[in-house]
């Protein structure tokens, strides 16, 4: 399985506020396969040398330079750290601290040296659900499968989850043929309730979608006993006992696309309703001021926006032709400020926004 540890909203806000004489942002392609990590380590070594050279040429104090070098090499030379990885690695370092995140999405190798961290790749990881789950359920088999956009799916070992009805009910399940249909469904409900209880700890800290693959009457019975808000509305009706994880994921991907599209469609309806209340804006300047003063409730941003500049403490934008040590992505900064004040932020494709817009915001009160 992938070992993923994306930042929380609070961690992202904290990282966004960091200012230092040397902020090093490194993003590396990695692999969940240990034998394929040599190239990542070599690339990291090259990035470290390049970063140290850049900050030395910019006049970083020698003592601070030595501290930064120590922080960076502490990651490169930590053998235990390189045992478990996902698709990408983020390393964010100053002479005073270093933070790492293993990410499920595949990111290109890149190095940024500035007075602040480069966090766009983390913003995407934070706002995009990076995985989903399949619950393949029958009387004779219960499996939970985790899958990602570009990685083979894996079966997850779930503590205390019965792998079949007999495991949940013991010898009582063997005698069900002596009883009627009502008693049979009661047994199934006891089985599905135990599965639901076993899944709760896995989904307690995130909202990744859970797609049910089963047949009737188990589908209706499982949904009746389900307590997870992650469960999607659509069921893939088939007997999954003889389907491998990859084949299952291939069949459920259209349902996952339907799930995400339904969410976006619901958001579009919400934007339309709030527009009539003068609580919607696509204007960057208005959104920057609203984000600065905590007035954004929901924000959709274009993941490919590249408008650079700065936003001051009053939310006023100064546009710039390109990013440098001082300027940065305007949309990313608006998203950062919105997240810091409790807004829900989603990074989406341009076609999911109003034509020509780099963002779409619902405000907490009319303007």
Brief summary of the model shown:
The chain has helices at residues 9-17, 38-57, 62-76, 120-127, 165-169, 181-203, 218-225, 245-275, 284-292, 330-340; strands spanning 23-29, 88-94, 97-103, 110-114, 132-138, 141-147, 154-156, 210-214, 231-237, 280-281, 296-302, 308-311, 317-320, 328-329, 344-348, 359-363.
Polypeptide structure, described:
There is one protein chain. With 367 residues, the chain is an alpha+beta fold. It has helices spanning 9-17, 38-57, 62-76, 120-127, 165-169, 181-203, 218-225, 245-275, 284-292, 330-340; strands spanning 23-29, 88-94, 97-103, 110-114, 132-138, 141-147, 154-156, 210-214, 231-237, 280-281, 296-302, 308-311, 317-320, 328-329, 344-348, 359-363. The chain has a five-stranded mixed sheet with strand order 7-6-5-8-9, covered by helices on one side. Strand 2 and strand 3 (97-103) form a beta hairpin. Helix 1 packs across helix 10, helix 2 packs antiparallel against helix 3 (62-76) and helix 9 packs parallel to helix 10. It is flat and about 80 Å long.
List the keywords.
10 helices, alpha+beta, 23% strand, five-stranded mixed β-sheet, flat, 367 residues
Strand element count: 16
- H/E element order: HEHHEEEHEEEHHEHEHEHEEEEHEE
Strand order of the largest sheet: 7-6-5-8-9
Shape: flat
- Summed over residues and divided by their number, the pLDDT gives a mean of 88
Rounded to an integer, what's the Rg over CA atoms? 24 Å
Helix content: 25-40%
N/C terminus separation: 47 Å
Tell me the major beta sheet: 5 strands, mixed
Proportion of residues in extended strands: 15-25%
Low-confidence sequence ranges: none
Kindly name the structural category.
alpha+beta
């Amino acid at each position: 399985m992938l070992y993923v540890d994306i930042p929380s909203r609070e961690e992202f806000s904290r990282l966004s506020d960091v200012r230092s004489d040397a902020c090093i942002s490194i993003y590396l392609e990695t692999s969940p396969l240990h034998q394929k990590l040599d190239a990542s380590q070599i690339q990291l070594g090259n990035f470290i040398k390049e970063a140290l050279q850049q900050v030395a040429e910019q006049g970083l104090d020698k003592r601070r330079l030595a501290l930064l070098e120590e922080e960076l090499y502490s990651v490169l030379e930590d053998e235990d750290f390189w045992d478990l990885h996902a698709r990408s690695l983020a390393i964010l370092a100053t002479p005073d601290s270093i933070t790492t995140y293993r990410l499920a999405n595949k990111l290109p190798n890149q190095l940024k040296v500035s007075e602040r961290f480069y966090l766009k790749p983390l913003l995407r990881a934070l706002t995009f659900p990076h995985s989903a789950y399949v619950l393949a359920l029958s009387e004779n088999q219960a499996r939970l499968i985790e899958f990602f956009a570009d990685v083979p799916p894996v079966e997850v070992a779930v503590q205390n989850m019965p792998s079949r009805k007999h495991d949940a009910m013991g010898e009582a399940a063997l005698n069900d043929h002596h009883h009627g249909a009502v008693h049979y469904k009661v047994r199934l409900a006891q089985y599905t309730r135990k599965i639901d209880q076993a899944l709760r700890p896995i989904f307690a800290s995130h909202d990744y979608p859970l797609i049910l693959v089963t047949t009737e009457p188990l589908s209706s019975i499982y949904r009746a006993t389900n307590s997870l808000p992650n469960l999607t509305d659509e069921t893939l009706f088939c007997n999954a006992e003889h389907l491998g994880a990859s084949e299952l994921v291939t069949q459920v991907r259209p349902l996952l696309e339907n799930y995400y599209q339904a969410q976006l469609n619901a958001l579009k309806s919400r934007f339309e309703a709030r527009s009539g209340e003068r609580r919607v804006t696509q204007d960057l300047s208005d959104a920057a001021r609203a984000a600065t003063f905590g007035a954004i409730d929901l924000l959709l941003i274009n993941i490919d926006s590249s408008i650079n500049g700065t936003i001051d403490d009053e939310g006023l934008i100064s546009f710039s032709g390109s990013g440098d040590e001082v300027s940065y992505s305007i949309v990313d900064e608006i998203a950062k400020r919105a997240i810091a004040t409790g807004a829900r932020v989603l990074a989406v494709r341009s076609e999911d926004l109003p034509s020509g817009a780099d963002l779409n915001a619902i405000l907490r009160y009319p303007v």
